[in-house]
Amino acid sequence: MRPDRLGFGIFLAPFHPLHEDPTAALDRDMQLVEHLDQLGYDEAWIGEHHSGGFEIIASPEVFIAAAGERTRHIRLGTGVSSLPYHHPFINADRMVQLDHMARGRAMFGVGPGALSGDAFQMGIDPADQRRRMNEALDAIMALFSGERVTMKTDWFELRGARLQLESYTRPHIEMAVACARSPVGAEAAGKHGIGMLSIGGTSDEALKVHANNWRVCEESAANHDQSVDRQNWRLVSLMHVAETREQARENVKHGLELWAKYFREVATFPIVPAGIDSAYEYLLENKMACIGTPDDAIEYIENLLEGAGGFGHFLELAHNWADFAQTKRHYELMARYVRPHFQHTLEKRKTSYDYSFDNRDVFVGASSKAVQAEIDRYEAQNKKD
Fold first, then answer.
1. How many whole angstroms separate alpha carbon 58 and alpha carbon 266?
2. How is 305-368 classified by DSSP, letter by letter?
3. Other C-beta atoms within 10 Å of 246: how many?
4. Which residues, including other chains, have CB under 8 Å from residue 143's CB and lie 6 or more apart?
């Protein structure tokens, strides 16, 4: 299924090497979101992490509140809020407030938490994270529906809890559940009839997992009298484009190997395994990234759509492989030359051009005759005078 209009956005963890000043790095993240807003990107999802030193946004809600004041159009989502880390009543209440402050541009992405170091420091057993996510999500959805909720688990309690504000967005803020390899996120998305964020890579094998997880999502929705729409399925991938393939490869020398090293040494799952001489070669050989030209990006996204069976939004992982100037240029090239292919914004212009070309002799002939008629009229008038 190809969407009529493929949405484009970013998934901003973010990733910042240890030698960078964190204040400047966070400011650059904000500048990037402003840049994307000016380029007409549809959305940006902001991460929540608490350890490891690279992914330094602890509160996506705080970032979104600030970004909402500095942007006009782009939608801003938590990407994602780690539900096991927060009492669901507080989480739901804050997101309703953010929904109002952003005038409906906020979105609520949820998940179990990605970094094992985060959960460990909070005393949370990784074996409990997905269960806790589901328990919190059940409570949040009930609160969003306006219910007065009484619920007790081994880690939170609600006693006749009810939100004091209606959502700005009706019936509630747009939501999506993170889904990597496990089907837990897909089951939860289907159960509640909300979107799915697939973040487990885009190799051929990963695409099979994503496609299967979407089937799980649809089955779960049917089992719970819900419905889901592929338009609300978002797929995250890796990409950097420049005017030439050679320039793109040169650009990513800035930060690709440091990024791969972080995932190998700190993050939960390594993307580029140990012993690989070139992260660039590995990612391209395994179809895990596109590093090339806008035409390469179009072909790559087309293959993702075919391999996954269709999705509604394409999100780029904001990885900081290139320096900031080349990163901004990448997004400009994507907006100018890649996005129009998938949003069908050029067809009418081309049709108009072709029509004008095909009928140029008629148009020019008629125009020339009109001009000549005025010249003849003027000359005839002057002769009389």
1. 17
2. HHHHT--SEEEEE----S-HHHHHHHHHHIIIIIHHHHHT-SHHHHHHHHHHHHTHHHHHHHHH
3. 11
4. 88, 89, 92, 149, 161, 162, 163
Dihedral Cα 20, 15, 90, 135, nearest 10 deg: -150
Q: Which helix (H) or strand (E) holds 102?
A: none
Structure tokens at 45: 């999802």
Residue 154, pLDDT score? 98
- The answer, as to whether pTM is greater than 0.85, is yes
Q: What is the pLDDT of residues 65-85, one digit of tens each?
A: 999 999 999 999 999 999 999
Cα separation of 340 and 347, whole Å? Answer: 9
- 82 bridge partner residues: 111
Give the Cα separation of 376 and 371 in Å (integer).
Answer: 9
Q: Are 254 and 322 in contact (CB under 8 A)?
A: yes
Exposure class string for 273-292: b at 16+ Cβ within 10 A, else e: eeeeeebbebbbebbbbbbb
Spell out the alpha helix ranges (H) of the chain.
Answer: 22-39, 60-70, 88-101, 116-121, 129-144, 184-192, 204-223, 245-251, 256-265, 279-285, 294-308, 324-333, 339-343, 347-358, 360-384
Give the separation between CA 114 and CA 40, rounded to whole angstroms.
29
Sign of CA dihedral 172, 174, 178, 179: positive
Is the Cα dihedral 345, 349, 354, 355 positive or negative? positive
Region 7-345: CATH code? 3.20.20.30
| Torsion angles phi and psi, residue 290, rounded to 5 | -120, 120
Strands 174-179 and 313-317: unpaired
pLDDT at residue number 8: 98
In single-letter form, the type of residue at position 327 comes to T
Q: Residue 170 in 3-state DSSP?
A: coil
Which positions ≥6 away from 176 have C-beta within 8 Å? 77, 80, 107, 108, 109, 110, 189, 194, 195, 196, 197, 232, 234
Domain boundaries, the chain: 7-345, 358-384
Exposed, middle or buried, 24 (CB in 10 Å: 0-12/13-18/19+)?
exposed
For the chain, the distance separating the N- and C-terminal CA atoms, rounded to the nearest angstrom, is 73
What integer is the mean pLDDT of 327-347? 97
